[in-house]
Amino acid sequence: MALYILRRLAFVPFTLLLVAFAVFIVLRLTGNPVDIFLDINRTPEQVEELTRRLHLDQPLPVQFLIFLRDLLHGDFGESLQFSGSAALVVWQRAGATLQLAGTALALAVALGVLGGIVCAVWRDRAADALVSSIAIAGQSMPSFWLGMLLIEFFALQMRWLPTSGYGEPKHLVLPAITLATILLPNFVLITRTAIIELANEQFVVTGRSKGLSRSRVLLTHILPNAVNPVLSFLGIQLGHLMAGSIVTETIFAWPGVGRLLITSISHRDVPVVEAAVFLIATIIALSNLLVDVLQMLIDPRIRRA
Fold first, then answer.
1. How is domain 86-303 classified at the CATH fold level?
2. Which residues contact 291 (CB under 8 A, 6 or more apart)?
3. Model pTM?
């Protein structure tokens, strides 16, 4: 078990190094941040000072080595639009993003698995058709459009919930539902498929032949084995969830890393963009590692792989 975890951990630094390299190159190739950040009234002294501050006076390979050196110390430089460390600016927004993403993920998993169970148990009946149709419709609906519909109905028409904001539980409801909808339909369909496929396996047939009730067969034989496909899908879709949080935070003015990233890109605040992307990549990499460990604990065959 320890060897498996160490083997998976070895990929994390390599993944983050590739992310750092890609972000560094893309930001340098899309334009000079000095020209975009400073206005037309800039002075040569301001240009020289900002160029030196961002190490843009150095060759590109030297800039990347300096970036890696600072990265090892958690230093992404000073923010161009905020006074202070870029890493600190991003870290102050991380809590809001984790709160939103964690709530949305919990909703997606709980309701998705429950909906998948309902579809599988009542297969080819009205409940299956209804839940599956809703799941497919939700899968086809863009999250930004759903968010605006929720704002229009629950906030502007019914006045039950605020259109935006942060701090109280009511502010979390609409953003969490919008973000959860990105993954929830897939959880429904994957759970349904996994349960239907397992229902014809030999160990399930044997359990039924022993006189076990339908609910007991489902709870003790089918569901524990249906968890693995759900976890596999979760590991794949964590990046999709974090990408969706960027759109959701922008729609609902949620003060998280995603909204900060969009603002920083428009202002060409290179240090904050680098810090935000690196934090999101780290969250995704560590979350995938956690999913792999959970799969290993559930399925002993993975330990021997």
1. MetI-like fold (1.10.3720)
2. 231, 232, 234, 235, 238
3. 0.82
